[in-house]
Amino acid sequence: MAFLPGTDTALVTERKGTLKLWREGSAQAVTVSGTPKVAYGGQGGLGDVIAAPDFATSGTVYLSWVEEGQGDTRGAVVGRARLMTDGAPRLEGLSVIWRQFPKVSGKGHFSHRMAFSPDGKYLYVTSGERQKFTPAQDLSVNLGKVLRLMPDGTPAPGNPFADKGGVSPQIWSYGHRNLLGIAFSPDGRLWEIEHGPAGGDEINHVEPGRNYGWPLVSDGDHYDGKPIPRNKTRPDLAQPAISWNPVIAPGDMIFYTGSAFPQWQGQALIAGLGSGGIVRVTIDGEKATERERMDLGNRIREIEQAPDGTLYVLEDGEGAKLRHLVPKG
Question: pTM for this structure?
C-alpha cells in the first residue's frame, strides 16, 4: 500500500495481481487496469507499490511482481508506469526496469520491497535469496541483496562492487535472507527487516558493502533443527540491531513521523504476520529495543502512515481488511 503524495488516495496491491485505487473514507476501492501478468503462487504475485519522488508532476508509480521464466523458474521484477486517473484509473507505459538474476525454481523469498532515498535520487530494492541459501554470499547474482539503483533501474554510480561486472554494480549490501521491509529513519539512515529461519528475524542498519551473514550465521536454526552458528561468532560480519527468537514474522516496517501518536515519533512500527499485530521498536545508535506489541488479532502484512499521521494496516489472507488505527478518544 502507498499513499499518493499530495492526495487522500492510496494504491493497494493484491497478490493475485489486482491493483486498487482507494480514497480515504471510502468503503470501496476501484480496480486499476493495465497491470502486469503475475506468477501467482506460494509467496509470489503482485508485491510492493510506491510513488516516484516526482509523482506530482510525472504521475509515475513503481510496482514489483513475480514473473515466470523458462523451465519452471520464477523471479521478481520491478516496473514503472504512469498512473492515469482521468476517467477509469489505469497504468500506461508499464515497463520492467529491474529483474532478479538468475530466475530459479521455487515460490518463496522474493522480497522485492522498494524505497526511495530521502533526496529522491536512488531507488533501493530488496531481493531475497529465494530459499537457495548460498546466492546471498555470491556477488555474481543479485539474490539475497539490497540493491541501489537509479530511478530508471540502472545501477547507481559509486556502488561498492561496481568493478566486479555483471549484476554486481547493482549491489549495495549482501548476505540477506528474506527482506520484507525497508525504510529510511528520520536521520536518513537505511534499515531493513528480514525473516530468519526457525528463529532469528532481524533488523539491520544497511551500510554499503557490508555482509549481513546469511547463511553463514543466524540467531535461528534450520527448520530441520540443524544448528547455524550465531551472529556473535562472526564479529567480522554486520551484526543485527535486534533479533527475535521466537520470531515475529515481519510483514513490513515504517518509521513513524506523524503527529497523531507523538509518543512514537522516530520509532519503527513493524507489521507482524506471526505476531498478529504491530511491534514497536526504538532505535539507539546501532541497537534496537522492542517496546510494545499491539495485538490486532490477525496477520498484518502492511503498515502505512496516512497524511494526517493516523495509521492504516492491511491484513493478510483471504477476506483481509484494510483497518484504520487512530488515537483513543
Answer: 0.98
